[in-house]
Amino acid sequence: MTRHCLVLGGARSGKTAFAERLALHAGAKPAYLATATVLDAEMNERVSSHQAVRGERFTTIEEPLELSHAILKAGKAHDVILVDCLTLWITNLLLANEDVATAVSELYATLAEIQQAKVILVSNEVGLGIVPDNAMARTFRDLAGSTHQRLAEICDDVYFVAAGLPLTLKGNAPDPVS
Questions:
Q1: Is residue 177 part of a domain?
Q2: What mean pLDDT comes out for the span 150-173?
């Protein structure tokens, strides 16, 4: 059985770099499934920076909404799929007035179904700070938290990354990956 993985952490915690190392260690044909949408110059710079760091090591697939479909399709050609990131995906779903709970249920079912590829999910842990002061931000925080809890159920390995250091929350400590 393929061991799916959830990597959580704060902004600039090192979670994506850790997930990339896991993916490169786990498979010979990794895909990078990016959920970001470029809406301004600053986001364009962030995306370009991520792409430059990844270089040619990953096949990049961009999909802001139809994550389950993209994972199933990528699983036909790749042995490991790194999804970065779930919180951007949730934001995209909210902005498109999509049902986040249904999309998360579809993702859960996809992870249960896909066995030919390891899926590594990256997401921002947003529930460690103050309670947001507006309803939309509280809804986003709650949706992210419930999504993380639901996906942690099905993932064999769950890590929390802080200061570039992974803490194993569930599963086995990762092999040393540098």
A1: no
A2: 94
| CA atoms 86, 121, 153, 72: torsion sign | positive
The residue range of the domain holding 130 is 5-170
Q: How many domains does the chain have?
A: 1
Tokens of residue 74, six digits:
């990528």
Residue 7 near residue 120 (C-beta atoms within 8 A): yes
pLDDT tens-digit profile of 16-49? 999 999 999 999 999 999 998 887 888 778 777 7
- Amino acid in the structure at residue 27: G
Which pair of structure tokens corresponds to residue 159? 């890590």
**Catalytic-labelled residue, pool 25, 50, 78, 148:** 50
Whether 50 sits among the annotated catalytic residues: the reply is yes
**For residue 59, what is the domain's CATH number?**
3.40.50.300
Token pair belonging to 87? 């919180």
pTM of the model as a whole: 0.92
CA distances from 112 to 14, 34, 102, 157 (A): 27, 21, 15, 14
